[in-house]
Amino acid sequence: MQTYDHTKITTRDDRGNGGMVSSGSKHASEAGASILREGGNAVDAAVATSLALSVSATPFSGIGGGGFMMIHMAHQNKNVMIDYRENAPQLADGDLFDLDSQNNVLDEQNHLGEKAAAIPGTFAGMSMALEQFGTMKLSQVAKSAIELGKNGFQITPFLDWVMSTDSDLASTKFKRNQEAASIWLKSDGSTYKTGETKKNIAMAETIERVSQNGIQEFYEGFVAKNAEKHMIANGGPMRAKDFSLYKPILRTPITGSFNQYSYVTCAPPSSGGIALYQLLTLFQDMDLAGSGHNTVETIDKMSRVLKHVYVARDLIADPDYEPIDSMKFTSDQFINSMQEQIGLSLRSSGGDGSQTSHFSVVDKHGNSVSCTESLEAFFGCGVVVPDTGVFLNNTMGDFDPIPNQLNSIKPGKRPRSAMAPTIFMKDNKPILVIGSAAGPRIITAVMQVALNVLVHNMDVQSAINAPRFHYHGDDLVMEGRISDDVSSGLAKLGYSITKEDDVTFLFGGVHAITISDNGEVHGGADPRRDGVAVAE
């Protein structure tokens, strides 16, 4: 498989003294920044960014998916989390998928096709964010997304790479779904290339119709009805009633402190925030600055902790369906027990994953948004709701396919996630707004970039650029730029080392913003994706 050429985008970061947007698409970042220039706040800009990502970065996120939004409202000194994670259809239960004798899902049913799709939450989440914390109407913030879809946008390098390499079975999904192919392939069946102009008219028209008439068009109108017709015809469990029942949830974020900073991060059903809390708490007494950045000693210290955090991650599920107490997993007693086990041999489900999209937004008033959302895999389950342009997610694959487990399927339940949108603060003012893509590797990506800024004193773009590693108890996987001396030193300690490419999307898509004491705002964006930051 050819390697994604991250050098095709030469400028990633931006600086200013006002607002800033950093996302996985220059088109989406500009859409959000334009709302800031019009006087909108960070929440308004975040919704504009999300909708623009739906159009111009469809494989990675969109209105057919869901996510989590972390919000800091400066004037009220208020921190809230919006959970708009997708949930299971009412006709789905623990034995939805056909399993073989080893409990493996047959025929990729939890990744490809109609059974893999959960009920989308993005439009409902964006609507809640605007109504409760924004200043603009949906029709105002949707303008850029609609224009991008109708007038066209330039294909970016990573988008080109995903489509041309069959990453996450992207081209396979086009072959399985004629409507998907008609939207995203040329008339001769070839893919669009970097710099070429692509329109996404069906998606634009759906966003326009919903933004003008309200989200009931999506959840009670033509999108829900068209989805039901398709699902009945193709053996899927999703029905129009599932859309009308869907509700985003306001949740209390996980809160913690690290050195002189406080932070807010994602609560269950995501495991990411609790994992980040556990890591930062256990790292607090380690002299990571003294042992240095990406040295044998530092990576060993962090990996010993990571192994146990990934084991604990398997204890998280939807708190509305399972007895999950966040206070237990962030308690001194629980974390002390983890510390006592460091060095023992444990196994976690770990997992791989590279998908999802994260964006960060700040405005000149000090409001901040950290938002991670996804279709799960690239182009989701590969199913397009007819006549809407909306790719449905394959988030049902995040459930345990075996019945009667903690993270098993139940009607209306949200599956476990690793998303970790986070806002670090000093004296109640945001100083680092951060999050990442990359499935379970989100946790290690956010952790490393945050430590690069807060411990190793890197500027945000350097912190994002720096090579990364990942460990959950199996191979210690790292980008090729980590030196051979370090990798061989870790091998001598007993780690099984796997080196990936020098710069690879498998290690995340971190989009982050720092705000200095003097008010300078620096937006950083990940070269592992199409990331670009844009100032107000």
Q: Would you kindly provide a written description of the structure presented here, covering whatever features stand out?
A:
By secondary structure, this protein is α+β, with helices and mostly antiparallel strands. The protein contains 20 helices and 21 strands. Helix 2 packs antiparallel against helix 3, helix 7 crosses helix 8 (178-184) and helix 13 (272-283) packs antiparallel against helix 15 (296-313). The longest helix has 18 residues, at 296-313.
Please give the number of β-strands. 21
Level of helix content? 25-40%
Strand content: 15-25%
Look at the helices and sheets and give the structural class.
alpha+beta
**How would you state the average pLDDT, rounded?**
94
The span between the termini is 38 Å
Number of helices: 20
Question: Any idea what the radius of gyration is?
Answer: 21 Å
Can you tell me the residue ranges where pLDDT is under 50 for at least 5 consecutive residues?
none
Shape type: globular
Described by strand count, sense and barrel closure, the largest sheet is:
7 strands, antiparallel
Q: What topology, given as strand order, has the largest sheet? A: 1-20-19-15-14-9-8
